[in-house]
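Justification of computing resources. Each target in the renewal requires a structure prediction run like the one illustrated here; the chain below, 358 residues long, is used simply to show the kind of job we budget for.
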Amino acid sequence: MRRFHLLLAALSIVLLSVSNSHALNVSPTDPGLDNGAPAPRTQPLEPGPVVRGTAIKNINTGEFFATIQAAHDTSATLAGHILEVHVASHTEGPQISITKGITLRGQTGMEVVLQSADTGSSGDSRGWFLIDAAATGFSAEDLTFDGNGKKVYQGFRIWASDCSFDNCTLTDMIFAPYHGTGIVTIGGANLSVTNCTLSQIGRIGVQFFGATATGGVADDNTYTGKGVGDWLDYGIELGGGGVAQCTDNTITNNRGVASSDGSTSAAVIITTFFGAGTAGDLSGNFLNACTGAIAAGFDGADASVITASDNDMSGNDTYTVNNTSLTEVHDCSANWYGSNVPATVAAGFVGVGGVDYT
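Resulting structure tokens:
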């Protein structure tokens, strides 16, 4: 864990409240709840004669399969089993349905899973990997997931709790013009995303969404945005009541602007626009070279609770924190803003809401 502690001895201002004339338009995302609950699902039956191959190995049973889906669906594969990708490049899609708490991992860490076709654009069809509520404890490790030039709305659409991702790369997950998410939990608590690298994502790297999406962790990840253009980038988004700790992440180059409505990008966006209870605790992050570091809220009614300390939020284009809330004062103390001159620091806080940056 890389940590840093910053001293801002020159700063004594406790509360900043500035004019709404500097507020910027960001665009939080509803990942598609379809009335807030997943459609009923059943455990898949034994899929007839299982297609054997050499691509995927069940480490627990020693069996090989041609596809991840076949390896998962056979009755011999149980929750807790490890499915290991044994080929350098494996293509499968447009959707892989997971109903068991398995671990999916690479044999060496160099293996790539490629999408074979476009995902859907509504409901559960959006997920390349659809993680059912029954798949508690699903994990992915040491793999690259590549959209392969196909339209990918959501790389992983998660209803289950206690899921985790470690040392994974997610890339080319774009559903033009303004969609594409790497990992989203929309019903499961305690999602953990660690040591992952995300790039060429349509909109959001990791999203914690919904009243039950609490206890989230995003730690030591790297998100690189697409730069200037007619698109959007948010490395991490919390919304609809999602709660997460975001630590030691590096998020850069989120500078896109949507020509459709003028929405702007940010390193992190946190909002209650889609539901109350959203809260984020940010520490040790590098949030740099973006339009803004933290988009705190969407409108004046926003009631998100945000704490940010020991972060490097220097070098952003337009603002450090944009607080739209008429009621909330966010604690953003002991960060590095690129300067210890009070007026320079103060200029980075925009919106109608207050920010305590002592």
